[in-house]
């Protein structure tokens, strides 16, 4: 009798039938609903700053550009071509140029949109004027 108890204790627990190794157990998922925000709500929440991207980028671009010029000048004044500091200077220099260029592009796009809105409003005004006086 004690021998049977030892046999039971030494036996591995029974496992359920093994299935294909590629199948994975189901994972509990939660769904999150993200509300859609229109432009008016975004403008109200940010105070209208979402359309002034080019104004925010200009100061950062100037600071990064100046830092890039200084670091590059220091690196090359010590003849450390190919060192980490020279690469850092070149990266900062190019990042400053990219930031200023993207700011200029954003400014031009905004200017074009503004002109287009003016044209549309004038066209609507002239069309409305024609219907009133006809």
From TrEMBL:
Its main location: membrane. One of its GO terms (biological process) is cellular response to BMP stimulus. Residues 1-25 are annotated as: Disordered. It comes from the Eukaryota. Residues 1-10 have a biased composition (Basic and acidic residues). Coiled coil: none annotated. Signal peptide: none annotated. One of its GO terms (cellular component) is plasma membrane. It is found in: Membrane. Pfam families: TMEM100. The chain crosses the membrane at residues 57-78, 84-109. It is a multi-pass membrane protein. Keywords: Membrane, Transmembrane, Transmembrane helix. InterPro entries: TMEM100 (IPR032536). PANTHER family: PHOSPHOINOSITIDE-INTERACTING PROTEIN FAMILY MEMBER (PTHR16100), TRANSMEMBRANE PROTEIN 100 (PTHR16100:SF5). This is Transmembrane protein 100. The lineage of its organism: Eukaryota, Metazoa, Chordata, Craniata, Vertebrata.
